[in-house]
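Friendly challenge for the regulars: who can give me the structure tokens for this chain first? No prize, just bragging rights.
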Amino acid sequence: MSLIKNPLLLKAKSVLRNRAPGLLVLGSRVLARTVFYKKERAYLAGERVSSGSLASVLLFAPERCATQYTNTLVSTMYDKVGGHSVILPNYYFHASPKSTKNMSDRTWLKENLEEKGYFYGSVGMLRTGGQLDLSPYTVLATVRDPRDILVSAFYSIAYAHTPSNKQFFLDAEEAREKGIDWFVQQEWRIESIKEKIRFIYDEIKPLPHSLVWRYEDMMGEFDQFITSLAKQVAPGEDLDEVVQSLTRERQEQMSNKEENVLKHMRSGESKQYEKKLKPETIEFLNTFFEQELKDFGYNA
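First reply, four minutes later:
Bragging rights claimed.
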């Protein structure tokens, strides 16, 4: 999701992306630290608002699970009932990528998150640090068929994302040269996705105050999904008008949907792997993710 709306600036961004990606990345980081993300910068500087009684919200999801779209949905509802959305992962990603590790560190989160009044966006899998009690928070999580996550990741890296450094440029070039079937079988990549899905199933799904949904259900049964999400984010609050508005926006998006490999949200369709991958690649992934597919009701 772009913070730039001006058509001329968007055109300039497109030109820089193709001709001088390094300059675009540098400029984006400067803007993130000085112009955009005012709420996030103020929060990290210690400027906190009255917390109220609304539980803070944490979102967990692997990559390529419509996280930015979910952030928008939750922010719209949460802010409507008096909460405050500070999407810290987005700020760190654009302003200081090395600091994104904070969002997976239990100790850092324990010291820096408020239990009331804030939606923080996708905090990532909790990899490091000590103990973090999740019971005070409203906890959300998205999962997606890992085979489709991998397909989406290929197009994101190979075509959609602006290279942030020389290594990213080389990785994108290698992905395009070696192809999608090579890309989706890289050991470190599939191990990472497996670990994230297992984290959600083993640690998040059992929580009594959590809502876990499948990306496919979110896209295919949006009415039911958005209603459940509203009840979880702001229990007891009247969000009917907001839900109706978000549903209309979703219907408009779906009426104009087409695949574009240069977009971060390329197509949003389920079972893309059946069209994009070779049968032997699918068989390999079915075996590797056998338990995760079974746990979340996907067909192998």
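Strands lie at 57-60, 84-85, 118-122, 138-143, 210-214. Residues 181 and 277 are 6 Å apart (CA to CA). Your move, everyone else.
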